[in-house]
């Protein structure tokens, strides 16, 4: 009886892993030339925003909110327009490394990690953030979670506060920045939808 139960548990675990790997393969199906072009454009957007818009948050508010908007506004648009796993991760990696190359900004590693986490979480909505209210809600939750994680990583490893401070104050403000990113991104995506931007990819 115990042996049978163990076999069932192992079989269930393998089946779940198989479903996860199949979903990952489906959503990362070849990046086309237009996807690579979009990654290049959105990586440039990430870089410009982090170099010029992000620092304004510290100058005006002494808070990281604008940095989160710089990252997650870009990533949300990426998930919507590219619609495949790997696009948001590539943008986060390319953008962060170039920003760090231009100036000393090691905290970009927090956003790099959060971009990958965000990309993985978006598998749950099959990288279709606006296909129904539940997907939009999922996108909002994934953005807030990813921004919070970025804040905790940055707070723990690159700021002078305590771990508790990183988990509460700094992580909390990054989560606020993630929420604001969603609020800003959705109307922009709605306008781009009406403008027929997705036709660039041969989609309607």
Task: Outline the structure in words.
This protein is mainly alpha-helical and 204 residues long. It folds into 2 domains: 1-30; 31-201, Arp2/3 complex 21 kDa subunit ARPC3. It has 7 helices and no strands. Mean pLDDT is 86; it is low at 1-28.
Topology at a glance:
Layout: H1 2-27, H2 33-60, H3 65-82, H4 87-102, H5 108-121, H6 133-158, H7 163-194
Helix pairs in contact: 2-3, 2-4, 3-4, 3-5, 3-7, 4-5, 5-6, 6-7
Question: How would you summarize what this structure contains?
Answer:
This protein is mainly alpha-helical and 204 residues long.
CATH class of the largest domain: Mainly Alpha
CATH topology descriptor of the largest domain: Arp2/3 complex 21 kDa subunit ARPC3
CATH architecture of the largest domain: Orthogonal Bundle
Number of helices: 7
The ordered H/E elements are HHHHHHH
Largest sheet: none
The tally of domains stands at: 2
- Count of strand segments: 0
Mean pLDDT: 86
| CA-atom Rg in angstroms | 18 Å
User: What structural class is derived from the secondary structure elements?
Assistant: mainly alpha
Measured as a percent range, the helix fraction is over 70%
Low-confidence stretches: 1-28
Key terms:
78% helix, 204 residues, globular, mainly alpha, Arp2/3 complex 21 kDa subunit ARPC3, disordered N terminus
């Amino acid at each position: 009886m115990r042996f049978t139960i163990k076999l069932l548990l192992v079989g269930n675990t393998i089946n779940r892993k198989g479903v996860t790997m199949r979903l990952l393969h489906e959503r990362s199906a070849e990046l086309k030339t237009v996807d690579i072009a979009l990654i290049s454009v959105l990586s440039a957007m990430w870089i410009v925003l982090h170099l010029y818009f992000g620092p304004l948050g510290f100058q005006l508010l002494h808070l990281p909110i604008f940095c989160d908007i710089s990252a997650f506004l870009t990533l949300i648009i990426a998930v919507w327009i590219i619609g495949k796993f790997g696009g948001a991760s590539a943008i986060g990696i390319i953008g962060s490394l170039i920003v760090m190359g231009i100036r000393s900004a090691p905290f970009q590693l927090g956003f790099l990690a959060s971009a990958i986490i965000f990309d993985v979480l978006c598998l749950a909505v099959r990288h279709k953030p606006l296909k129904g209210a539940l997907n939009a809600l999922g996108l909002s939750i994934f953005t807030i979670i990813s921004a919070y994680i970025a804040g905790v990583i940055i707070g723990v490893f690159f700021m002078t506060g305590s771990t508790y401070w990183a988990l509460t104050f700094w992580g909390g403000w990054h989560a606020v920045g993630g929420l604001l990113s969603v609020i800003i991104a959705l109307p922009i995506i709605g306008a781009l939808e009406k403008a027929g931007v997705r036709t660039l990819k041969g989609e309607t």
